[in-house]
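Input/output pair, single chain:
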Amino acid sequence: MKKETRLAFNKVTEAMAKAYGYEHAGVEFAVDPSIAQKLTDKIVEQSTFLPRINVMGVDEMAGENIHASVSGPVSGRTDTSQNKRREPKDVLAMQPFRYQLYQTNTDVAIRYNKLDAWAKFPDMHNRYRTYVTAQIANDRELIGWHGTSVAKDTNIQTNPLLQDVNKGWMQYMRDNLKANVIAEGATSGELRIGAGGDYEGLDEAVTDLLSGIPQFMRRDLVVLIGDDLALYEKSRLMKALSLTPTEKNASHEAMMSFGGLPWETPSNFPPRGLVVTSLNNLSIYYQEDSWRRHVKEEPEYDRIADYNSRNEGYLVEEPRKFMALEHENVKLKKGDNWV
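Output:
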């Protein structure tokens, strides 16, 4: 490591140690809950999606979901003149859904030549922090949408989307309310979208998903649509029109919403994914006192290593307010084939 790089990086680690309440950075930091919250905030800032869902600290490794939803309407009347008692309804009297946290390691390596480049700038600390927190944010998105299992020894080669690091939101639904993840249509193991399929287009598919959510829960809903499905729908609509100026405008308006709901494509979302829910129904919990961090130099690899560990989990607060297609089973009409 160059001398100027060494001096600049020493300032980074000294500031980090001071923030965590340590005299120097050559030890593992046990991150206090208040600092863990600040670190979490910095991670969330690196994503366009995470700030819109719940990312929060909890005390226990396992427990019941925090953001409970009402189980049904509660208003009514009782004729008390007939000596009847008004009976308050327990709006949270519903099937309890639970969360489970698992240790998650996010260990980031930064080579000396990268640090040499950063050392030339006065904001090296911010560049270093952004490098680490952006990677954690991206990984959280990947796990949230693609995670299916919790392996003792994960394998990035066989699970490039971090499928084996933790169970994400789709897997939470498969485990807790499988019926709300539609896995097949008329053809076994397939969900066909296109002419002659289970759904002619996305509008019909979204309407079907929306019908599976109780009416009193249909607030703040949004449709999450994968890139492949969005492009397919746009192409389908364009081909159906002769593309006069008026029809071009109609095609644009038709893509503004589906099933009467606004839509978007979150980063790292499955290409053929289709989900109807509210964003505040998705959560990531982390155990507040579980965060450990250790930054150390590894000259044998010409790098700095930033080891991070915490216990965290992904959950859907109210599974009844979440409907989806099993994205791996979605087939699109291409010519005369379903692919």
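Residues 102 and 185 are 34 Å apart (CA to CA). The helical segments are 3-20, 33-45, 112-118, 124-146, 169-176, 202-211, 227-240, 245-254.
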